[in-house]
Amino acid sequence: MKAQQALSRYFVEEGVFPAGTSADDWVGDRWYRIGGLPVFPLVGKIKQSLILHDLHHVVTGYHTTWRGELELAGWELGSGGCARHLFFWVDRLVAVLLGLIFQPRLTLRAFRKGWRQRNLYPLQASQALAIEIDELRRYVRREAA
Q: 20 to 30 A from 136, CA-CA: which of 58, 109, 120, 130?
């Protein structure tokens, strides 16, 4: 299964999308929405960063809850940071600081797990979406294909 299909399935399972919604719609949408209402525009690298971040949820299994976001922030920084995605460097640093305050053990455990892995930020979002999800998981775990 391609990563884009896995992302659609994951979002439905997590309750982010209603059943029958495709990641295709989300990838093409230029707005960050809460409850279907556009909150702020997703332009340039922010959308690319968000796609890669959401794929990290799929490959790591961290949920889209507040706790899962704090864990994923620790993992993303531990696994190499956010490459050229400046907005996400700021976002992830703030999330890790919050994680160290409210969920220190989980945040540090996720950071240590990330330390042994790598993330998808060096890739182009369109490239990552087109790869088989199992291949992305192997890439993250640094396993040979």
A: 109
